[in-house]
Amino acid sequence: MKRFAVAAAVISAALVFLGSLNISGQSSRNKKILRMEEAVAAAFGNSQFGSLDAKRLRLGKIKLVIEHSLLDGDEQFEVRRFATFKQIERWLQSREQQAEAEGVGKYKLPIRVVDTRAGCRRGICRYYSPNGILHNHLYLKKIFYGYRGGRVYVKKIYLYDGD
To answer: Mean per-residue pLDDT for 26-51?
Structure first.
């Protein structure tokens, strides 16, 4: 009986130890990437990009690419580089326009939309629009990221403007 109790205690201790290791199917790196993606998506959707600076999600300048749905050629893509997320937010807000609708009240155009996440692989988190796009909406399409020194950082944010 004592052997059984000792064996059970050893097995329990081993299971606790193994449970503390990260064998849950997601590595620490993948969890960091997922947290980064969720933070960027939430900040974009809530017009609070400036809050990301405190999370140290950048390494150098961040490239912002906006693809315009109604333009062609060189005008189709608008590319800017920013030193901070706060600068991105200020620039996006400078492009917004106030609008008002009966029953809704005041709101800003374009409306920011975070679509359904398709997944994060090989340095890119992708989103897709299952219901198509609408005018006066700005869609988060891709987040390009890197991983250095145990830290995930944002390289580029790709937006699609429904114009």
So the answer is: 93
Give 97-151 pLDDT, tens digit per residue.
888 777 767 788 899 999 999 999 999 999 998 888 888 999 999 999 999 999 9
Question: Of the candidates 157, 129, 136, which has an alpha carbon nearest to the alpha carbon of residue 61?
Answer: 157
What's residue 69's pLDDT? 87
Q: Residue 84 and residue 3: Cα distance in Å, rounded?
A: 62
Name the DSSP letter for residue 13: H
| Burial of residue 153 (number of CB atoms within 10 Å: 0-12, 13-18, 19+) | middle
Residue 16, pLDDT above cutoff 70: no
Tell me the C-alpha to C-alpha distance, in Å, between residue 83 and each of 49, 59, 88, 90, 154: 12, 9, 8, 12, 12
The CA-atom distances, in angstroms, between 55 and each of 34, 42, 117 are 14, 13, 21
- End-to-end CA, the chain: 75
Phi, psi of 32 (to 5 degrees): -65, -40
User: Hey, which bits of 83-136 come out as E strands?
Assistant: 97-101, 105-109, 111-114, 116-121, 124-128
